[in-house]
Design goal:
With 197 residues, the protein is of the alpha+beta class. The chain folds into 2 domains: 89 residues, no CATH class; 96 residues, Alpha-Beta Plaits (2-Layer Sandwich). It is built from 5 helices and 6 strands. Helix 1 links the parallel strand 1 and strand 2.
């Protein structure tokens, strides 16, 4: 019997493993990310690959609260094409990549009050500089505190056709405007930018 975390699914070859059980197989769906279904499908497909090597048959048992979720159904059938069609349709409906460009702004600081203030101030500017683009946040990150840093985040959705040069220009304008009105003590807050997260 081998007990482990998701690490067990990551390409290790255990030739005598014929049965794999996954507890709370739908946990990944609890994370507020447009990629959560994709990650769950990928993980379950990898886990299933651990059971039954060479001539030995394998079985996979999943515990889930969402047995009708398309990612679980397609993963149980190893049907990548059907899953990809479902996922692409969902992303198109909600205007997520590749049908948009998504920029994430992460705010981190050891000072809980200051990080919230900077996130609010910065996101107000974000709405002005990227006028007309949907802005999500600011809000505490899913993992609100990590390595003694308090974390907040904001997102902006941009048209998929926006070029890199225009995006760079707008980001420069955003940080230039922020430098002119950033709150006192904001140097304790780090801002990370992730494009097409």
């Amino acid at each position: 019997i081998l007990v482990g975390t998701q690490l067990v699914a990551k390409g290790l070859d255990f030739p005598n493993v014929t049965v794999v059980g996954v507890v709370n197989a739908d946990t990944e769906l609890a994370f507020p990310s447009y990629r959560s279904s994709e990650r769950m499908f990928q993980l379950l497909t990898q886990v299933a690959g651990r059971a039954g090597r060479a001539e030995k048959k394998g079985m996979v048992y999943l515990q889930t609260r969402l047995p009708e979720h398309p990612a679980l159904i397609h993963a149980s059938k190893h049907d990548f094409e059907a899953f990809a069609k479902f996922e692409i349709h969902s992303r198109k409906e909600l205007s997520y990549p590749p049908y948009s460009r998504l920029i994430q702004f992460q705010f981190k600081s050891k000072d809980a009050q200051k990080v919230a203030e900077v996130a609010q101030n910065f996101t107000e500017l974000l709405s002005q500089v990227f006028s007309g683009a949907p802005v999500l946040g600011p809000a505490p990150a899913v993992i609100q505190r990590l390595y003694n840093d308090f974390r907040w985040e904001s997102f902006v959705k941009l048209d998929a056709s926006m070029g890199t040069k225009k995006m760079e220009y707008l980001l420069e304008a955003l940080f230039s405007a922020y430098d002119k009105r950033k709150p006192i003590g904001s140097s304790t807050v780090r801002i990370n930018v992730n494009v097409d997260v």
